[in-house]
Amino acid sequence: xxxxxxxxxxxxxxxxxxxxxxxxxxxxxxxxxxxxxxxxxxxxxxxxxxxxxxxxxxxxxxxxxxxxxxxxxxxxxxxxxxxxxxxxxxxxxxxxxxxxxxxxxxxxxxxxxxxxxxxxxxxxxxxxxxxxxxxxxxxxxxxxxxxxxxxxxxxxxxxxxxxxxxxxxxxxxxxxxxxxxxxxxxxxxxxxxxxxxxxxxxxxxxxxxxxxxxxxxxxxxxxxxxxxxxxxxxxxxxxxxxxxxxxxxxxxxxxxxxxxxxxxxxxx
Amino acid sequence: xxxxxxxxxxxxxxxxxxxxxxxxxxxxxxxxxxxxxxxxxxxxxxxxxxxxxxxxxxxxxxxxxxxxxxxxxxxxxxxxxxxxxxxxxxxxxxxxxxxxxxxxxxxxxxxxxxxxxxxxxxxxxxxxxxxxxxxxxxxxxxxxxxxxxxxxxxxxxxxxxxxxxxxxxxxxxxxxxxxxxxxxxxxxxxxxxxxxxxxxxxxxxxxxxxxxxxxxxxxxxxxxxxxxxxxxxxxxxxxxxxxxxxxxxxxxxxxx
Lengths: 268, 256
Description:
The complex is a heterodimer.
Chain A: E1 4-5, E2 8-9, E3 11-24, E4 27-40, E5 44-49, H1 55-62, E6 70-75, E7 78-79, E8 87-90, H2 94-97, H3 104-109, H4 118-131, H5 147-159, E9 165-169, H6 177-194, E10 197-201, H7 205-211, E11 214-219, E12 224-230, H8 241-244, H9 246-264
Parallel strand pairs in A: 5-10, 5-11, 8-9, 9-10
Antiparallel strand pairs in A: 1-2, 3-4, 3-6, 6-7, 11-12
Chain B: H1 7-25, H2 37-50, H3 52-84, H4 86-99, H5 108-115, H6 119-143, H7 147-155, H8 160-197, H9 202-212, H10 216-244, H11 249-252
C-alpha cells in the first residue's frame, strides 16, 4: 500500500468516537454511535452493512456534507467543517447528480471552472474523460447516455479535480451486473494509476471484497463498526480468477457471517 | 424549427370560412353587423395600406414589450429571492396569496384615479397582471431544484455565486420560461383591455372606435390581427427560449 511512511500507514482521515443523530418529529434518532476509524493514504476502503446502518451518513460526514453531533473527524489533521479540499463525493443517483442541461464535457469541467486556466482545464477534463473511456461522447448530453455511462461522467467529474480521496456512495447500485463489473475494473485501474484513496460504500459483499484493501462492516441501529477485515488478495485483481480464489471465498463468507450477525443481534 | 403546414386543420378552417361567407351572402342569416370573411379581408387590406394598422400595432406591441420586460425582471428577481430564502417566503407569501387572486382588471379604476387615461395606466395594469406567473414559476422552479444538486455543488466546492449561476438558475430555467410565456399572454390581454378603457391608443382602442363608427368589417379585421399578434409573440418566445435553453431536454421536443 502506498500510504506507508517508514513502514507505518499514513492516516488522512481520523474519526474519533463519532456520533451522529438526526431530529425527527418523534424525537432525536441516533444514526451512528461511537465510530472510530482511520482512512489511510492510497487505501481502497470499502464499507458494507445492511440498510439503515448509517453507511451513507458516515460517508456524508467524511465528505463534509453533514456535521457530526459528537466526536471528531479530521482530514489531514484539520477538523472537517465542510467539504475538504481534495475530497470529492460521487453519488448513487447519477441522473440527479449530473447537470442534465450541460454536455458531458461541460459536466466534467464544472468543478474546475473559474479555478484553473483554460488550457489546464481542457487538459484535465480530457484526461478525466479518457480515464473512464468517455472521450467519444464528450459533446453528448447525459440524458442521451446509458446509466453506466452517466455514472462514468460523474466519476470523471470527480477525477478532474484530482482528488486525494474519492468518496463513493453505492455508485454502482443501480447498474446491471455486466456494467458493474466493467466499472469496478475501471475504478481499480484509476486507483492503481493515480494513487487516489477510496472510501466506497456498497451493500454488495462480493464487490466490497473484490475492490477493497480493507472492508468495514457497519451494523446495528444506531450503526457501529462491527468488524474490520484486511483483504490480502493480490493486485491487480481479475473478475474471474480473483473471485474464484479460495481466499476470496473465505473473506466473502466471513463478511457475510458478520453482516448476518450484526443484523440478527439487533433483532431484525 | 421546421414549420409544418397542418393540411387537414387548414382545410377545415378554410371550409368554415367559406361556410360563413355562404351563410351571410345567401341571406340565410340576417344580422346586420356580421360581415362575411371577404369584407373583413378587404377592410384588412385597406387598414394595412393606409398605415393605420401599423400605427395601432406599434403602440400595442410597444406597451406589451415594455410591460412584459419590466414584469419579467421584477418577477424573476422576487421569485429568485423567495425561492432561495425561506425567511423571505415565510414573511411574504401570505401577502402574495392575498394579492394574487385579485384580478388585475379590478384595479383599473384605481389605476385610472392615480394615473389618468394614459400609457402609465396601461403599463401598470400590464405589469401587475403579468408579474405573477413569472414570480410564482421562478419561485417554484428554484424551490424544486433537486437537493442532490446542492450536494454536488458543495462537494465540488463551488462558490455561492457559481451555485446560483451554474446550478440553480439553469435548473429552474424551464419553469422560469413557462412563467414568461404565461405572462406574455396576460400582457397582451391586459394591453387590449387597458386600451379599450383606460388609454385611447393601440389595437384595443381601434376595436372600440370601429365599433362606435359602425364599421364591423374593420372591427373584425383588428380582432383578427390581435389574434395573429398573439400567435406571433408566442412563437417568437418559444423560438428564443429554445435557443436560450438548447441543452434542456424539453427544448428539443415540441412544446409549442
